[in-house]
Write a structure and sequence with these properties.
The protein has 299 residues and is an alpha/beta fold. It contains 11 helices and 11 strands. Among the domains are: 74 residues, Winged helix-like DNA-binding domain superfamily/Winged helix DNA-binding domain (Arc Repressor Mutant, subunit A, Orthogonal Bundle); 105 residues, D-Maltodextrin-Binding Protein, domain 2 (3-Layer(aba) Sandwich), CATH 3.40.190. It is 42% helix and 24% strand. Strands 3, 4, 5, 6, 9, 10 and 11 form a 7-stranded mixed β-sheet that branches. A two-stranded antiparallel ribbon has the order 1-2. The protein has a two-stranded parallel sheet with strand order 7-8. It starts with a helix and ends with a helix. Keywords: Coiled coil, DNA-binding, Transcription, Transcription regulation.
Length: 299
C-alpha cells in the first residue's frame, strides 16, 4: 500500500535522519532506506540528499512531502469515517504540551481519555511553549497545549481551556517566608531561579519583573520546572511557578515543608490554551480529545 512508504518518507523528512525515523516507526534502517529508494524509483527523481549526519530534502521532495501530508490526513479521515459507521473512535493523535501541562495536567487527562477511547493511539511531545507552537504550525503536532499568551493568527487557532495560578516559592527558611504579606517592592534585589527563553513560565516572570521594575540580583536558568523547584529547595533562590507544580510540595510532610509559597499581596493568573493549525483536518479522535481537555477544568 502506498500509505506505508508515504508515512516513512514524511517521518524521515521531519526527523531529518534515517535512524531516528526507523526507531520511531519500529523498522530497520535498511527497511526505511528501501522505502525511500522505491519512492524515488517510482517518481523517477531524487527526493533526499543523504549525508552521514543528516538528510536534506530536494525540491521534488518538498513537493511530495506536502502532498504526502495531505494524503496521510485524508487516509486517517477515511479511517475515522469508516469506524464512525461502527461507532468506534480510532486513529492517531500527536499531542504536544508545554512542560507544566505535560508533566502535571496531561497525564491525568490521558488516563481518563484512554479508558473511554482505547483504540486511539496517542503520541506525546513535551517541550517549551514556543517549540510546541512551531510543531503545530509545521503539522508535526495535531494539537498543542500551552501556557501563557498565544495570539491567534492565520496559522493558529487558539482556545483557552483553563486558568492557572502563578505563585512565588522559596525554601521554607527564606526571610520572605516569615512575612505576613509580600508586596512587589519586597521582591527587589532577589536571586531568582528561572526557566529558559521560549518557556511560558519564563515569559510570565519577565512580565512580572518589567511591570514592577524589579532589580534582579542574580538569576540561574534551568530548562525544566522540576529543576527550578529543586534549586529552590536547595536555597539557591526564589522562583515563580505554576501552582500545579508545587501543590504537592505545599502539603505538610511530617510537620515540615522544604518549600513554601510566599504570601503575595496580589494574585497572578494566566490562561492555558489549546492551539491547532487552521489548516488541520478535523477527526473524531481530535474532537473527543478537545472535549476531554475542556472538561478537565471542571473535574
Amino acid at each position: 500500500m502506498i500509505i506505508d512508504p508515504m508515512k516513512v518518507f514524511v517521518t524521515v523528512v521531519e526527523q531529518q535522519h534515517f535512524s531516528r525515523a526507523a526507531e520511531l516507526l519500529n523498522l530497520s534502517q535498511p527497511g526505511v532506506s528501501q522505502h525511500i529508494r522505491n519512492l524515488e524509483h517510482e517518481f523517477g527523481v531524487q527526493l533526499l540528499y543523504r549525508s552521514p549526519k543528516h538528510v536534506q530534502i530536494t525540491q521534488a521532495g518538498e513537493l511530495l512531502y506536502s502532498r504526502a501530508k495531505q494524503i496521510l490526513s485524508l487516509y486517517e479521515e477515511a479511517k475515522q469515517e469508516i469506524n464512525e459507521l461502527q461507532n468506534v473512535v480510532t486513529g492517531t493523535l500527536n499531542v504536544g504540551a508545554s512542560y507544566t501541562i505535560g508533566e502535571y495536567i496531561l497525564p491525568r487527562v490521558l488516563a481518563d481519555f484512554a479508558k473511554q477511547y482505547a483504540f486511539v493511539d496517542i503520541q506525546v511531545t513535551i517541550a517549551n511553549t514556543l517549540q510546541i507552537q512551531d510543531g503545530v504550525r509545521s503539522n508535526k503536532l495535531d494539537i498543542g497545549l500551552v501556557e501563557g499568551e498565544v495570539s491567534p493568527s492565520v496559522e493558529l487557532q487558539v482556545d483557552a481551556f483553563m486558568e492557572d495560578e502563578m505563585v512565588i516559592v522559596a525554601r521554607s527558611d527564606h526571610a520572605l517566608c516569615k512575612e505576613r504579606l509580600v508586596t512587589p517592592d519586597m521582591l527587589q534585589d532577589q536571586v531568582w531561579i528561572v526557566r529558559e527563553p521560549g518557556s511560558g513560565t519564563r515569559a510570565y516572570w519577565e512580565r512580572l519583573i518589567q511591570q514592577n521594575a524589579l532589580r534582579v540580583k542574580r538569576s540561574y536558568m534551568f530548562s525544566s520546572s522540576q529543576g527550578v523547584k529543586e534549586a529552590v529547595v536547595e536555597g539557591l533562590g526564589i522562583a515563580m511557578l505554576s501552582r500545579f507544580i508545587v501543590q504537592k510540595d505545599l502539603l505538610h510532610h511530617m510537620g515540615y515543608n522544604e518549600i513554601a509559597m510566599l504570601p503575595l499581596s496580589s494574585r497572578y493568573t494566566r490562561q492555558l490554551s489549546i492551539v491547532q493549525s487552521t489548516k488541520a483536518i478535523p477527526s473524531k479522535a481530535m474532537d473527543k480529545f478537545r472535549d476531554r481537555i475542556k472538561s478537565h477544568r471542571d473535574s
